[in-house]
Amino acid sequence: MMAVRSMRQKKKSEFLTEVELEFMTELWALGEGSVRDVLARLAPDRNLAYTSAATILRIMEQKDFVTSEKRGKTFVYRPLLAKDTYQSKTLRDLSDKLFDGTPASMVARLVDDQGMSEETLAEIRALLDRRLNDNDD
Amino acid sequence: MMAVRSMRQKKKSEFLTEVELEFMTELWALGEGSVRDVLARLAPDRNLAYTSAATILRIMEQKDFVTSEKRGKTFVYRPLLAKDTYQSKTLRDLSDKLFDGTPASMVARLVDDQGMSEETLAEIRALLDRRLNDNDD
DNA sequence: ATGGACATACGAAGGTCTTAGTAGCTACTC
DNA sequence: GAGTAGCTACTAAGACCTTCGTATGTCCAT
């Protein structure tokens, strides 16, 4: 049997679907994991069939979001996309589409609405101070 | 046993789809507008059929994102969902799903990666200062 | 070898989203 | 009153997403 597995890459949507993000989140937390590992971490009321989980991970590999390595008789999946990277990409996209491309307005809405504690706010300001001083020398 | 679950509401996804956001953005900018008004504001290379635009707005009305009023022979659409509100909702969702529910980490990633100018950063810090002083009395 | 446990591959059903064509309504013009 | 222009309603095609069942393969113990 030939495992003909070399299709051409198609446009790659770059973004994770709902379920893909759910799975990727567990992989990011685990570092790596089998179908069963990921499944075990989902909410108890999630009730997703094993084969569904396997399908999802296989598709994620086709999309190059994860890679796999056969260990014994099971595949172990590992993220190819770093969480940091994906966070950045997502923020940029959101800023472009919903905040007129000005990330500052995003922060403004965040600190206005998100009910952050005062220490959280102070923490963020400290972060900015550090950032500003770093570039300032 | 009967399905006790026959709500008339279809669970309303709460979130705009890609195209719906595109249209809503124009309606937010316009305040209100007809199919033609919205269509006119899209990028010249968008090439969306008039009937497609009309369908999209009709669906958005079914989903209660907009309301309409017949003026002459055309419908004029107006947002029911405020941009601010939607921004907040989206940020909260993103924070929950991709930033462990801690908005502060979101800001951290923003100021780290987004290549903001120094004045943008200073602007944000000013915003935080104001916010902190307001609560500080 | 046979059966059982468990893993992967594939295909199909049912849903939503995007797009656009077709049909029909209304009103204005000649 | 027939034609035309512009609008809305409906329907459908095609793409993608989510879920799961079935088929198939592999390893191991009996």
Defining key terms:
DNA-binding, 6 helices, mainly alpha, homodimer, disordered N terminus, 137 residues, two-stranded antiparallel sheet
In short:
Two copies of one chain form a homodimer. Chain A has 137 residues and is mostly helical.
Question: What does this molecule look like?
Answer:
The first copy, chain A, contains six helices and two strands. With 137 residues, chain A is mainly α. In chain A, strands 1-2 form a two-stranded antiparallel ribbon. The N terminus of chain A is likely disordered. Chains A and B meet through helix 4, helix 5 and helix 6 of A and helix 4, helix 5 and helix 6 of B. The first copy, chain A, binds a DNA duplex (30 and 30 nucleotides) through helix 1 and helix 3.
Q: Mean pLDDT of chain A, nearest integer?
A: 88
Greatest chain-chain contact: A-B, 42 and 41 residues
Judged by helices, strands and strand pairing, the structural class of chain A is mainly alpha
Strand order of the largest sheet of chain A: 1-2
Oligomer: homodimer
Tell me the layout of helices and strands:
Two copies of one chain form a homodimer.
Chain A: H1 18-30, H2 35-41, H3 50-62, E1 66-71, E2 74-79, H4 83-98, H5 103-113, H6 118-134
Helix pairs in contact in A: 2-3
The structure holds a DNA duplex (30 and 30 nucleotides).
